[in-house]
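Hi F.,

I've been meaning to write this up properly since the lab meeting, where we talked about keeping a consistent format for the predictions we share between groups. The idea is simple: the sequence comes first, exactly as it goes in, then the structure tokens exactly as they come out, then a line or two of notes. No screenshots and no reformatting. I'm using this chain as the first example so we have something concrete to point to.
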Amino acid sequence: MHDSLTEIEKYIIQKVKEIREERGVTQEDLSLELGKGSSFIAHIEAPSKTAKYNIKHLNDIARILKCSPKDFWPDKAY
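Output, unedited:
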């Protein structure tokens, strides 16, 4: 899964996915809310890809999902 991503990047991608799914938001809907192409989130969440979020993405996703950007981060450093 995400072979060339760091552990922290993998963690954040997984946390965004978990919170997105808990909120009942599809990959496509979140992508479009971000002003991206419909497959933007799918591309990041795909295990075979190396795409990742930047800080602006995480802030915007937190706003859309009505949570804190801190919710995407682990309690301890990797």
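Notes:
The longest helix spans residues 7-22.
The mean pLDDT is 95.

If this format works for you, I'll send the rest the same way.

G.
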